[in-house]
Every structure is written in C-alpha cells, then in structure tokens.
Design a protein that fits this description.
Order of helices and strands: HEEEEEEEE
Number of helices: 1
CATH architecture: Beta Barrel
CATH topology: Porin
Distance between the termini: 34 Å
Number of strands: 8
Oligomer: single chain
Structural class: mainly beta
Radius of gyration: 19 Å
Strand order of the largest sheet: 1-2-3-4-5-6-7-8
Shape: elongated
C-alpha cells in the first residue's frame, strides 16, 4: 500500500509541474523521462559453460524527474537486470529517489548534468544447479553519476551517462554482500516543457 501511495504522490508531483509555463528544458517545472536498456549474449569457448550454454545479460531502467528550481531536478528511478547461463541466474531490481543539477539555459542545445541518489536494491540468485537453492538479498545502492543530454528534436534526445554504484546487501541468513559497479550507457530521453 505504501508503494502505491509513493507512486501516486510522485505522479502528482510530476503533473503539477506541467501547470506552470517553462521557457526551456532545465527551467522550473520542466520534466524528464529517461529509458535505458541493454541485452548481451556471449558464446564461444571463452563464455560458454561446460554444457555449451551462452551467458546472457539484460538490463532495463526508467527514471522520471521534475525540475523543482531552475537547473535543479528531483525524481524517481527503477531498474531491473538479469544474468543467466543454463540453470544458473541472478536477478536484480532497484527503486528510489535521486536529485540532480543540470547546466543549461534558454539558448542551450543540450545540457550536462550530475545526479546523486539512493535505491532500495534487491537480488535473487541461483548459483548451484544441483541443490536448486536460491539466495535473496536486499539493501541499498548509493550512486552518483554524470552525463549529457543531446537533443534530436525539441522534446526528444539521447543521453550518455556514467554512474558509480556502492551496494550493501544482506541475505536471509544475514550474510553481508558489498559491491561496486561502474556503468556507462546511452539512452533515450523525453524533455517536457512548453
């Protein structure tokens, strides 16, 4: 129930910004909607297991943000990833808020930005095909990133972004897992302003 309330409040937060007249992409009240994804399938003797199974990885992410002041935005992001090889797999998911700064003005063609945030992070993985046991772990993902929005049309652009993530998870047996991830990606972004 709390998750539905959070989504409802965040949707109202984004819609409220559209009622004001924004002059440019990073003006107060403007909105951003970003979608990213990737899929990789690796085979051959370098990547296949003993049974010839390929290593497959897929990732998907969505973020929605609203400029709460000129060049300052806040938002919510969700992400999902899955890696598999034969019977073995790992699935990850995350959801949480972020805040960012963008450098842009009325005459800007594109704009660079930085973001910081935290996500509730979960993982489910099976690493032993004989026992069939799975491990579930939850915790936090604290991250920071830098990127640039490159416009294609007035309201659509590409985004290139690099992020650093610090993960801290505990499984059902209270074992701690820590990790660091660096990502570099490209995505499609919608920019909403009048």
């Amino acid at each position: 129930m709390a998750r539905k309330n959070l989504i409802f409040l965040f949707t109202c937060f984004l819609i409220a910004g559209q009622a004001t007249a924004q002059e440019f992409a990073t003006d107060k009240g403007a909105g951003l909607f970003n979608i990213t994804g990737s899929f990789t399938s690796s085979g051959g003797s370098l990547f296949e297991d003993d049974n010839g199974h390929y290593s497959n990885t897929g990732m998907f992410g969505l973020t929605a943000s609203r400029f709460v002041a000129r060049n300052v935005f806040m938002g919510l992001g969700v992400g999902y990833g899955r890696q598999s090889q034969g019977d073995l797999y790992s699935s990850t998911y995350g959801v949480g808020p972020h805040i960012g700064l963008a450098a842009g003005g009325q005459k800007s063609q594109g704009f660079p930005f930085i973001t910081f945030g935290i996500r509730y992070y979960g993982a489910n993985f099976k690493t032993d095909s004989w026992s069939g046991e799975t491990t579930e772990a939850t915790g936090s993902d604290i991250f920071g990133g830098i990127g640039i929005v490159i416009p294609i049309k007035k309201y659509v652009g590409f985004t290139i972004e690099g992020n650093y993530h610090a993960l801290s998870l505990n499984d059902q047996n209270d074992h701690h897992y820590g990790g660091k991830i660096f990502t570099l990606g490209i995505g499609l972004i919608g920019v909403f302003y009048k």
